[in-house]
Specification:
The complex is a heterodimer of chains A (504) and B (262). Chain A has 504 residues and is α+β, with helices and mostly antiparallel strands. Chain A has seven helices and 19 strands. In chain A, a hairpin with a 3-residue loop joins strand 4 and strand 5. The relative contact order of chain A is 0.11. In chain B, 17% of the residues lie in helices and 49% in strands. By secondary structure, chain B is an alpha+beta fold. The chains are: A alpha+beta (504), B alpha+beta (262). Chains A and B meet through helix 1, strand 1, helix 3, helix 4 and strand 12 of A and helix 1, strand 1, strand 2, strand 3 and strand 6 of B.
Chain lengths: 504, 262
């Protein structure tokens, strides 16, 4: 009897221990994960621990550069070098030929960018952003080299307290949240100093600023901003105005008076719309609006809208040609012009989607009411074909060339204004980090003209040689039937190889 | 005599266990996670420097240095963070900001501020959630999955609560987390992070406890890739400082002018 009792007590004891053991297990499977960490990494960390002041927690040998706390410095200087080689394939024949056949086929570019910002002297700061370009270009008939200097930014910042900032000087003021076309980016017209590349990143990095005074007051859940850029009259032939070598292109973006007021406030936790009122040349008011919102952990949706009192692209081009003295007041433009300004809508909306494989793809729809509709494109190519025929006859060749010049000027105006030439476009951009290996990124861009067909496709590969040296290759293809925007563009494809070096 | 002795031992063990269980039951899973959050994050606004190194097959292949400014939102209890990149040179002065579920990324070279999703990654296996201060107790529902003794990276046994975390905020980086928190100190020892489909994304070890801003906190996180276990990311946290951080910093419009603190 006693033996049986002992037996059962032993069983109960084992059961209790087993129950306890379930909750308090030695999780040996979990410990296998440590084996995945190489001993060298663990050892390296432990050595670092030995060099650390245990009380302050500050590693004795690894304070940020220059003893800065939090990585901040009184003066920050960044110098970047870009070396680029481009090869363009010219489309021949063109439905709308160029008035001048001397087109660049090959380009070598060496650019050095200096970016300096100071954060000293209490509330005052200075920012300088300047790029020097040296270019060698070849056409079918000639070769030439040139230099230019782009003073992109030069401004003084006054920040009397954390909520207020005032700035004065040449400032690159950018608005908008869409990836492709920003209707509310009102200071974008003519902002790209020199279009030496079709690469979107290059274009955004090479915007030059407008001379302006601006202020912003930022509160915990709202902000107000004001900017004023005066019209500057500088003789275009003056050395200050010329870009060549050390000219500053002072009045490049100050052809008209511009004023902008911006207001944004938080309406929900993750939603803060932005409202903009913009006035150009005292009689061109624009109203802008943008909003973004997140959906789950992968999707960001956004929309940007602008309503502006202005002319359409055709009339804007004609006005520009008259302002530049290339079209007299009496001369008629190739297309009928707006008699008066109208309210034109522009908008961009879309979303981005991020995948686990480190790829983020953006889908956007762009609408520009001031751009070409299908009938405008038909008229464009009809006029172009007629003008091309005029070139065959010496008596009408000059007139034909003038028409062709006007037709190409429309494209130039749209490109310089950073506005889509067609009314409707679909924009897709995909950025894929670490595609093959750890140092290789790929970016693809597809812009489809929904109004008249055709597309532009750009693929760019970036290879990180080391922390400071990057090598990239970009290929751009302009495709479509001969009577489409991209199928009638000057180049059918462009290739670019580039080396970027970050000195500091 | 023998029976009495065994009965006595059994009673001692039983009541001992019951007493222990009873004492531990005083803490709910959420309280344990909240206590662990306090270990990981100082209670006042602070800044610290993070060094990230990605290793592949034991060789460092990428490095990044950034400074993080973090402040708890009084309303939500969640951290707002502002991150400035210091290295490599190409990324210098780029800024990322998290305010609630909203993340913005600013690139000074293009002047563009782009809204990004929590899934967009920075470097190697380090996601936005790994480098920013996060109060797990606010974003996850916690359950005690048991008590386990696991080894830390020095292969020392640590008695831990195993906490199973399920996301209640659909914008967090990970849907499910298994977290091992040391019972005595509430220091995190290990975490396993899973996707919506239950796939293991990464395993993290928290190590090198040091005194930062008044208490011992992990100064290093070692992340093992869930798919490629030869890819290791080491994050070192250092130079902790209390800071005065104004709310206006966490606005998109502030990003272009953000230069940090002297």
């Amino acid at each position: 009897m006693k033996a049986i009792r002992i037996y059962w007590l032993q069983v109960i004891f084992i059961v209790i221990l087993a129950i306890w053991g379930t909750g308090q297990s030695l999780a040996s499977d979990e410990d296998l994960d440590i084996d995945a960490i190489p001993e060298e990494i663990l050892f390296e960390s432990e050595n670092a621990e030995l060099n650390t002041d245990q009380m302050s927690g500050q590693p004795s040998d690894s304070l940020p550069e220059n003893g800065e706390i939090g990585g901040n410095r009184l003066i920050s200087l960044d110098i970047t070098s870009e070396t680029s080689l481009q090869k363009h394939s010219i489309r021949k024949p063109l439905v709308v030929p160029l008035p001048n056949d001397d087109v660049v086929t090959d380009r070598f570019r060496q650019s050095i960018n200096f970016f300096l910002s100071t954060n000293g002297s209490g509330s005052l700061g200075l920012t300088v952003n300047d790029t020097l370009h040296w270019i060698y270009e070849e056409t079918d008939e000639s070769a030439d080299d040139s230099g230019s200097n782009h003073l992109k930014e030069l401004y003084v910042t006054w920040e009397p307290d954390i909520s207020f900032i005032g700035e004065l000087g040449r400032i690159n003021l950018k608005n908008g949240i869409a990836a492709g076309f920003n209707p509310t980016d009102y200071f974008k017209k003519n902002a790209v100093g020199a279009r030496y590349s079709d690469d979107q990143t290059y274009l955004r990095e090479n915007r030059i600023g407008t001379w302006m005074a601006r202020m912003e007051a930022i509160f915990s859940s709202a902000m107000i901003g004001l900017a004023y850029a005066p019209k500057m009259e500088i003789d275009e032939d003056s050395n200050w105005q010329k870009r060549e070598y050390f000219g500053l292109g002072l009045a490049d973006l100050n052809h008209d008076d511009h004023g902008l007021a911006k207001f944004s406030f938080k309406i929900f936790d993750d939603t803060k719309p932005e409202f903009i009122y913009y006035l150009e040349d005292s009689d061109r008011p624009h109203f802008g609006f943008s909003i973004s919102s997140g959906f789950g952990k992968r999707v960001i949706a956004y929309a940007e809208f602008s309503l502006g009192n202005r002319y359409n692209i055709i009339s804007e081009t004609a006005n520009q040609l008259r302002e530049d003295g290339l079209l007299s007041e009496e001369q008629e433009f190739v297309f009928s012009e707006d008699k008066e300004k109208s309210h034109y809508r522009q908008y961009a909306f879309g979303f981005s989607y991020t995948e686990d494989i480190k790829r983020t793809t953006t889908f956007e729809y762009h609408y520009n009411e001031a751009g070409f509709n299908k009938n405008d494109w038909k008229a464009y190519f009809d006029e172009g074909e007629q003008a091309a025929k005029m070139l065959e006859n010496a008596a009408t060749a000059a007139y034909g060339n003038a028409i062709l010049g006007q037709l190409w000027a429309i494209r130039d105006w749209s490109r310089n204004a950073d506005e889509p030439l067609s009314q409707e476009n679909l924009f897709i951009r995909s950025q894929w980090q670490e595609v093959w290996g750890d140092n290789f990124d790929l970016t693809g861009l597809l812009s489809i003209d929904l109004t008249n067909g055709g597309f532009i496709f750009q693929s760019k590969a970036d290879y990180e040689w080391h922390d400071s040296l990057f090598i990239s290759f970009a290929a751009t293809f302009y495709q479509g039937s001969s009577r489409t925007q991209y199928g009638s563009s000057l180049y059918s494809s462009s290739l670019e190889a580039m080396i970027s070096y970050y000195f500091l | 005599m023998h029976v009495r002795l065994i009965t006595f031992v059994l009673l001692v063990v039983f009541f001992g266990l019951m007493t222990g269980v009873h004492a531990e039951e005083k803490l709910t899973a959420n309280q344990i996670v909240a206590a662990c959050d306090k270990v990981r994050n100082p209670e006042k606004p602070f800044s610290f420097v993070e060094d990230l190194v990605v290793y592949k097959s034991n060789k460092p292949i990428k490095k990044m240095r950034l400074v993080v400014y973090a402040k708890e939102d009084e309303d939500s209890g969640q951290f707002r963070s502002l991150i400035r990149f210091l290295a490599p040179p190409r990324d210098k002065n780029k800024i990322m900001m998290k305010n609630g579920n909203v993340l913005w990324f600013h690139d000074p070279s293009t002047k563009a501020s782009v809204r990004i999703s929590p899934k967009q990654r920075l470097l190697g296996q380090a996601s936005n959630g790994d480098i920013m201060s996060v109060n797990l107790a606010k974003d996850y529902e916690a359950e005690i999955g048991g008590q386990e003794t696991i080894k830390d990276t020095k292969r020392k046994n640590r008695d831990c609560y195993k906490i199973d975390l399920s996301a209640i905020n659909n914008s967090v980086t990970y849907d499910k987390i298994e977290f091992w928190i040391e019972k005595k100190t509430f220091i995190p020892i290990k975490g396993k992070f899973y996707s919506e489909s239950g796939r293991l994304l990464k395993t993290a070890y928290y190590r090198n406890m040091k005194y930062h801003l008044g208490r011992k906190r992990p100064s290093e996180t070692i992340i093992i890739d869930g798919l490629d276990r030869k890819q290791i990311t080491k994050i070192t946290h250092k130079n902790y400082q209390f800071q005065t951080i104004p709310d206006s910093w966490f606005q998109k419009e502030y990003l272009p002018r953000f230069k940090g603190l002297n």
